[in-house]
């Protein structure tokens, strides 16, 4: 019987090469770009938020920078408008004088003293020891009464001394562990927030000698010649010079300031301070020429220099208090300006210096 034929050996055949169609490539997304000015006008950004977003994405950070600049411009505009309103109102109050002026000073003192004790309380995080709240409230009330007492009694030395004694006794007899920092901050608050601002009442209402050195008459609507006393002219001149000094220092400091003035306030520069001094003295001399008080050009120049030194020192003292408290502004009472202390810090020491200069340095009040 014949053997079966061997099975054919398996052969490894390569599968046929299949040419499959490649998947379709996705098309790039269609991007629409708006041909708009960079950045678009503010009124368009307000009405069409998507338009503003498209401009920001197309221009990178240019839109954000423009928005920041627009916000700064709005803040500056608000600051200027509020400052003009305050200046006009303050001018009317100064011209009115009497109890109107004393009441306005008393209201400003009350608000400023409350901000001061809040700043003192903010120093507790850095190791400070603020006085109890009831002590700070009593001090604020006493400070608010000082301008009124000055108007009717002419002095407040006894008031300050007696108030400081009462505050010291209340702090020493309190429960717990009294601290010396509580006593110093409270007594300084009486001096800084109440005693010094009361000199503006002494300056405005305590110098009743006529200031007119000319023969022409002032309008009856402005009070007539009898109303224009040394106190009124000296107060208007001091306030106007402080405003001129602050404005000149701010503008020239931003434009030309290079040399820091002091570490207490890094934004203040020597160039700005010199511009503030020039603006203050120039304003004093011009007003003395118009109002014919004081009659001496040298006295007017010295008065302007003294006003500038008082305003600068007051500004630096308030900056020192805010730096220890770790805050930028003393409050938020005035839109665009911060707190009341941020607005009147240049006036705290100036009233006492002006009153002392007129009473001591000028013979017969410079008339």
From TrEMBL:
Regarding the membrane, this protein is recorded as: Multi-pass membrane protein
The record's listing under InterPro entries reads:
PC_trans
The EC number(s) this enzyme carries = 2.7.7.41
- Positions of the UniProt region annotated as Disordered: 1-22
Any single GO BP term: phospholipid biosynthetic process
**Compartments where found:** Membrane
Q: Does the keyword 4Fe-4S apply?
A: no
This protein's pathway reads: Phospholipid metabolism; CDP-diacylglycerol biosynthesis; CDP-diacylglycerol from sn-glycerol 3-phosphate: step 3/3; Lipid metabolism
Catalysed reaction, written as an equation: a 1,2-diacyl-sn-glycero-3-phosphate + CTP + H(+) = a CDP-1,2-diacyl-sn-glycerol + diphosphate
* UniProt keyword Phosphoprotein present: no
Q: What is its main location?
A: membrane
Give this protein's Gene Ontology molecular function annotations: phosphatidate cytidylyltransferase activity
The organism's place on the tree of life at top rank: Eukaryota
- By its UniProt entry, which Pfam families does this protein fall under? CTP_transf_1
Keywords, comma-separated and alphabetical: Lipid biosynthesis, Lipid metabolism, Membrane, Nucleotidyltransferase, Phospholipid biosynthesis, Phospholipid metabolism, Transferase, Transmembrane, Transmembrane helix
**Compositional bias of type Low complexity: which residue ranges?**
1-20
Q: Which residue ranges traverse the bilayer?
A: 80-111, 152-173, 180-200, 228-252, 273-291, 297-317
The record's PROSITE patterns line, in alphabetical order, gives: CDS
**Which Gene Ontology cellular component terms are annotated?**
membrane
In this entry, which stretches build a coiled coil? none
User: Per the similarity annotation, which family is this?
Assistant: Belongs to the CDS family.
Q: What is this protein called?
A: Phosphatidate cytidylyltransferase
């Amino acid at each position: 019987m014949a053997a079966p034929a061997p099975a054919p050996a398996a052969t490894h055949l390569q599968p046929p090469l299949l040419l499959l169609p490649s998947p379709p490539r996705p098309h790039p997304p269609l991007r629409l770009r708006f041909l708009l000015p960079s950045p678009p006008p503010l009124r368009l950004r307000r009405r069409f938020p998507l338009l503003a977003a498209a401009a920001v994405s197309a221009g990178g950070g240019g839109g954000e920078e423009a928005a920041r600049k627009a916000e700064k411009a709005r803040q500056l505009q608000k600051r200027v408008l509020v400052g003009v309103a305050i200046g006009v109102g303050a001018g009317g109050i100064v011209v009115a004088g009497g109890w109107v002026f004393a009441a306005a000073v008393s209201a400003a003192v009350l608000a400023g003293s409350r901000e001061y004790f809040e700043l003192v309380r903010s120093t507790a995080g850095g190791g400070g020891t603020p006085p109890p709240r009831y002590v700070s409230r009593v001090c604020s009330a006493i400070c608010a009464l000082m301008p009124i007492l000055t108007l009717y009694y002419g002095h407040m030395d006894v008031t300050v001394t007696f108030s400081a004694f009462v505050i010291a006794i209340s702090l020493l007899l309190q429960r717990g562990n009294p601290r010396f920092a509580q006593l110093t901050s409270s007594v300084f608050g009486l001096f800084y927030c109440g005693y010094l601002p009361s000199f503006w009442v002494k300056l405005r209402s305590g110098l009743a000698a006529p200031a007119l050195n000319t023969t022409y008459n002032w309008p009856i609507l402005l009070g007539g010649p009898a109303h224009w006393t040394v106190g009124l002219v000296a107060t208007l001149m001091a306030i106007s010079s402080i405003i001129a000094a602050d404005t000149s220092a701010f503008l020239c400091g931003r434009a030309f300031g290079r040399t820091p003035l002091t570490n207490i306030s890094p934004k203040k520069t020597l160039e700005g301070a010199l511009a503030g001094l020039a603006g203050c003295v120039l304003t004093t001399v011009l007003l003395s020429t118009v109002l014919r008080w004081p009659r001496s050009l040298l006295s007017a120049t010295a008065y302007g220099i003294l006003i500038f030194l008082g305003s600068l020192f007051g500004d630096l003292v308030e900056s020192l208090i805010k730096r220890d408290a770790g805050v930028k502004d003393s409050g938020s009472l005035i839109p665009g300006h911060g707190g009341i202390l941020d607005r009147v810090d240049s006036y705290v020491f100036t009233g006492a210096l002006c009153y002392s200069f007129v009473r001591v340095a000028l013979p017969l009040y410079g008339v």
